[in-house]
Design a protein that fits this description.
Elements (H helix, E strand, L loop, with lengths): L3 E6 L7 H6 L3 E6 L5 E2 L7 H19 L3 E5 L7 H13 L3 E5 L5
Parallel strand pairs: 4-5
Antiparallel strand pairs: 1-2, 2-3
């Protein structure tokens, strides 16, 4: 898999309506030695956004314990090499997955 650096900035939550309304998680990711930029910026390819989402999903699995995940088209926008990398990564996670993929007739 491509090398990646992930940074997550958690909100400062206080028990106030305004604070809770404005709360959000800031995720920054950089690939192949590039400095992390905010996820959702146009600087990330579709494949890089998919990889970032899978990394976040695996972080949740590690934090909350292995579980069951429904993942919608995790291989979209990935090269064939990356599809194999992601498949191996998911297999090693220990979690259970229901994966959707498009089909053609």
């Amino acid at each position: 898999m491509a090398s990646a650096k992930l940074e997550i900035e958690l909100p400062d939550l206080r028990n106030e309506d305004r604070s809770l309304d404005e709360a959000g998680i800031v995720v920054r990711i950089g690939f192949d030695g590039k400095p992390p930029t905010e996820l959702g910026d146009t600087g990330h390819s579709g494949g890089q956004q998919v990889i970032a989402g899978i990394i976040l999903l695996m972080s949740m699995a590690e934090t909350e314990g292995d579980g069951f995940f429904i993942v919608d088209e995790p291989f979209a926008h990935l090269s064939l090499d990356r599809v194999d990398d992601v498949g191996r990564f998911l297999r090693r996670s220990g979690a259970q997955f229901l994966i959707t993929v498009p089909t053609t007739l």
